[in-house]
Amino acid sequence: MNRISVTVDGVAYRNDVEPRLLLVHYLRDRLGLTGTPVGCDTGSCGACTVELDGRSVKSCSVLAVQADGGEVTTVQGLCSPGGGLDPLQKAFHQRHALQCGYCTPGMIMAARDLLRENPDPTPDEVRHGLEGNLCRCTGYQNIVHAVLTAAREGQEART
Ligand code: FES
Ligand code: FES
């Protein structure tokens, strides 16, 4: 067992974990944060994407011990304290960018990374930026629209 200290969605945790425990299983099974789903468990689908120290990672490809001392943000940590949706969550809702919703947490977390690096992306850049995240329902079109909507609103908020 290894003892880890990690902050998740603003809450500090200290737990003993098996050295081979994946971050996604730590989040879901130990902390009960089931908003981060497991799709493939092999780093292929992106459903499990979270932020670790400000960068998006596929949490099925990271060991919990690698998050020791770090800060993790899951899709559950994006809402305001009053429960209001963050701009990307709102845009996904408004633009009907989900059907079953299984890919949505990962899409939103990957899109945050994309918009941080490129706050005003083209549709092609959005598609390229999200190519590590798979959706089997939507055909991607509304996901791209949602990310462009959030980008536009981010631009307007800054002007
Ligand atoms: S569950 Fe992690 S990439 Fe698919
Ligand atoms: S909405 Fe079903 S997998 Fe994307």
TrEMBL record:
<dbReference type="InterPro" id="IPR012675">
    <property type="entry name" value="Beta-grasp_dom_sf"/>
</dbReference>
<keyword id="KW-0479">Metal-binding</keyword>
<protein>
    <submittedName>
        <fullName>Carbon monoxide dehydrogenase</fullName>
    </submittedName>
</protein>
<dbReference type="Pfam" id="PF00111">
    <property type="entry name" value="Fer2"/>
</dbReference>
<keyword id="KW-0560">Oxidoreductase</keyword>
<feature type="domain" description="2Fe-2S ferredoxin-type">
    <location>
        <begin position="2"/>
        <end position="78"/>
    </location>
</feature>
<dbReference type="InterPro" id="IPR006058">
    <property type="entry name" value="2Fe2S_fd_BS"/>
</dbReference>
<dbReference type="Pfam" id="PF01799">
    <property type="entry name" value="Fer2_2"/>
</dbReference>
<keyword id="KW-0411">Iron-sulfur</keyword>
<dbReference type="InterPro" id="IPR036010">
    <property type="entry name" value="2Fe-2S_ferredoxin-like_sf"/>
</dbReference>
<dbReference type="InterPro" id="IPR001041">
    <property type="entry name" value="2Fe-2S_ferredoxin-type"/>
</dbReference>
<keyword id="KW-0001">2Fe-2S</keyword>
<dbReference type="InterPro" id="IPR051452">
    <property type="entry name" value="Diverse_Oxidoreductases"/>
</dbReference>
<keyword id="KW-0408">Iron</keyword>
<dbReference type="InterPro" id="IPR002888">
    <property type="entry name" value="2Fe-2S-bd"/>
</dbReference>
<dbReference type="InterPro" id="IPR036884">
    <property type="entry name" value="2Fe-2S-bd_dom_sf"/>
</dbReference>
